[in-house]
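Form 7-S
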Amino acid sequence: MDADTIIQTVNLTKRYGKQVAVDDLNLSVKEGEIFGFLGPNGAGKTTTLLMLLGLSQPSEGSASLYGLDPLRKATEVKRLVGYLPENVGFYEDLDAIQSLEYVANLNGINKEEALGKIDKLLELVGLKNDARKKINAFSRGMRQRLGIAEVIIKDPKILFLDEPTLGLDPEGAIWFMDFIASLNRDRKITVLLSSHNLSQVQKISHRVGIMINGKMVADGSMESLAREKFGVGDKEYSLEEIYMEYFQEV
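Output:
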């Protein structure tokens, strides 16, 4: 494993009966990268994230984060990783401050430290004026902002984001992606971003991987993938054009 590689899978495979959800996946993500994880529904992206988190056991192969096995070193891995699923669950009768206090307590953050962090986080994600509003009155965009605040309250080194802008309006989606880019830039957080929105992924990712039918069919920078599919030339290709070239070959 390269010294800079902090997320790695080796021949990672997950079967559900006869169905192969993830097929012999070899993935590596370097520290400080934003890695765009692309593919249609059912491609195996979420299953991969769950195995990396130690929430699902591989059928074959292995996964590691900072050299740690997510199954055998689950506690250590959870300290390092923040995970925002596609649909974030909240206690609806809590307000934003109470929800963050609860998450801070789960992560062993003492009350005094938590209060300082919560105030700064709510301002950072634009929820300071809604701090005492019940979550059951939150819009989708507000929930995603609170969700990312809950994820970063423990200062993770890695973020796993599963379709974080799904259901957001264009303004909310732009804010969210810009915020992720700022976390990567300012806090040096490594990001594994699973998304259908190719233009958003292209905007902030350093490298992308394309999964189709459980297999990683492409992995690299935009430039390297464009060279592979279209040859060297002056034209710049969009991620959508590159993605469709790979997709049509499967």
